[in-house]
Amino acid sequence: MLEKRQRRTPCACGAVMLRLLMRTWLQRFRGDVAYLERMFLGRTRPEAEGAVREALALCGSERWCEGCGGSLEEDTSGPSAVGHGATRLCGRCRLQPMFHGFIRLGRYAPPLDRLVQRVKGNAWHDVAEAFGRALACAISRKLSRPPGGWIVVPIPSPPLRRLRRGIDHTGSMARAVGRELGIRCTSCLRARSSVRQASLGRSERLQRSGLVWRGRSRIPEASSVLLLDDVRTTGGTLLKARELLERHGAREVIPAVICVRD
Length: 262
Fold this sequence. Notes:
With 262 residues, this protein is of the alpha/beta class. The protein has a single domain, classed as Rossmann fold. The protein has 9 helices and 9 strands. The protein has a 5-stranded parallel sheet with strand order 3-9-8-4-5. Strands 1-2 form a two-stranded antiparallel ribbon. Helix 2 crosses helix 5, helix 5 packs across helix 7 and helix 8 packs across helix 9. It is globular. 34% of the residues are buried. The N terminus is likely disordered.
């Protein structure tokens, strides 16, 4: 046994050194890219944690509907919202809630909306990961671990759009959430190339969402899913994703987004 350990030790040390070298190279590469952006394109990359903290301080919301994610008034005892124990629902969700649980960081308003747009437009990977860590904190405060455990599933972008932007922002967020909470992250959904959906209504989004199930993907039995996206506009894409996930064995689907367009 001692001889086997002595043989494995150099390999283990080599793997550790390789990981450290790769991490150092990646950090240096990101610094070089930020320098080139600043010099030639006039882009200035903000400090990730500070930018996210500042945006959420201005646009974060303490009260939102846990059926659709929409903002609630400070006084939830009025006709616009009703509390069911620890759950707050808006007037529309009292009749038929969109989801049985919803997590968000804030509302889609300046400066949070501009920061989300720049993450995608400028390929700010570090800011996307900072958003993921902030979502992980919100998730840990609101949810308990179910019997089957949680898995994280990001809403994907079409491949050509990811290639053009140079970032898979929801994937970066999902991986950060998985690392912070110690849970599995899986990309079981695939987005086909389609028209931009920002101007479509909910029914049109359901018909033209372009989400399909990725071949050979599988969800562990009795698992609950944290469905991650950047912005909830009408909720059509999230509803289509929930339909696919439940069809393939998800016990429960809870959306978690950066912000909601009220």
